[in-house]
């Protein structure tokens, strides 16, 4: 029977796996397995035809021991309270892995944006921003983009917040466009860290990235940029997918042309550089050197993991492997670079954006990318160091050992229980 993974339970089991290697008090570990608070709200919004529609929305503030809560806002029909809680926990351990002074949060609205006009989406977003207003702020909680949200939504949230607060506070949200106080390099940052981490893993495993074959599941912000950058590093992108299916060419294709095709038609399907169309499942089990899951949670469960043939997986998505898949892949010696490191580029450049907003002093793209490179390489080195010294089963556990220790240290150094 296929493994049914609740993302929040997956997060908690990842924490338990790592806690076994740590000398952190059980009560502190238990605290670090739950969000500090979760907002659940209903947005009632007027549609273009004058009718009213209700949307359930959430914001989970998981942990603020190391700094303001930080994490994206997702628009998707499958958003749920448990998914948002899990994503906010993963943010907590991601900011700790990258060693940036932020906590973890996440938000989401249960909505399929494809069903709504731009003006309806603007009203939904501004309604959510009103509900978020008492919770967010540059020193409290700083949202950002995630699945199906981007600069447009971030600009609306910033504008609503600043209007209601009668202030200018661009650091209340990141992932804005440049004219609204965004950072150079933020759009590319998630894909960039995914490939920097892959490059470091290939180096660590003594594998050649030049000519290595790559499959990318999900061709949105994270996936397509990862495809473009890994191609620039000399690897060959042979497969890509989106929610309509997958394209494949064993000789490789131009990832930018595939993206242009998706922009024009709405999907990678039908791209002229493809030799064959595959199902999404076929893509995940291709015999490639590197697999980049860049869509949603639970893409690979224990059953499917048995058929995975990639040597290295770099998780651009959050939570793409179930705990059962992790076990199977560890037994098969597949090197999995966990999401909390591989996709940490997004929040790291969000951190740079927040720093620039607060200083009102903006960096060049070269500076952003150089600082990002340094933090991701340092995080990878810390992971490898723990992977080797603690004799853990997989790289995810190593990343959590490092991250949980950092969060626990902040909590314990701040004082005692209330
Ligand atoms: N945008 C960001 O800055 C960050 C995103 N992430 C994670 O990366 C993942 C993707 O996010 P974005 O690229 O921002 O979203 P996006 O909305 O730009 O793109 C998502 C892509 O996944 C595809 N997709 C959906 N279901 C699929 C399926 N079953 N099989 C194949 N493709 C499927 C969609 O068609 C779309 O191309 C998510 O897990 C997100 O949490 C992580 C860190 C930061
Ligand atoms: O940029 C950010 O603050 C968070 C991005 C995000 O939601 C993620 O890393 O999953």
From TrEMBL:
Gene3D superfamilies: Leucine Dehydrogenase, chain A, domain 1, NAD(P)-binding Rossmann-like Domain. The keyword Metal-binding does not apply. The record marks 146 as: Important for catalysis. SUPFAM superfamilies: Aminoacid dehydrogenase-like, N-terminal domain (SSF53223), NAD(P)-binding Rossmann-fold domains (SSF51735). It holds the Pfam family ELFV_dehydrog. The active site is at residue 106. Belongs to the Glu/Leu/Phe/Val dehydrogenases family. This is Glutamate dehydrogenase. It comes from Haloterrigena alkaliphila.
